[in-house]
Amino acid sequence: MLYYALMFLVVGVIAGALNLAGVAAVAVQISWILFLIGIVLLVIHLAMNRPARAS
């Protein structure tokens, strides 16, 4: 997921350098959404893999 976010960010930067403002804006928004989804999934994954408490 974070790989795709990075790829869309690179596409956005390249499109921005080529003065393609619409394409750059959409690519950066998609990369931001994918980044947030990736971080949320990472936090959920880390929360679910906690070892059981010894009592």
Please tag this protein with its features.
55 residues; mainly alpha; 2 helices; rod-shaped
Q: What count of domains describes the coordinates?
A: 1
Shape: rod-shaped
Helix count, per DSSP?
2
Poorly predicted runs are none
In angstroms, what separates the terminal alpha carbons?
37 Å
Radius of gyration: 17 Å
Overall pLDDT score: 83
Question: Helix and strand layout, with pairings?
Answer:
Elements: H1 2-17, H2 21-48
Helix pairs in contact: 1-2
What would you say about this model in short?
The protein has one domain (2-48). The chain is built from two helices and no strands.
Task: Summarize the structure in words.
The chain is mostly helical and 55 residues long. The chain has one domain. Helices cover 80% and strands 0% of the residues. The protein contains two helices and no strands. α1 packs antiparallel against α2. It is rod-shaped. The model has no long low-confidence stretch (mean pLDDT 83).
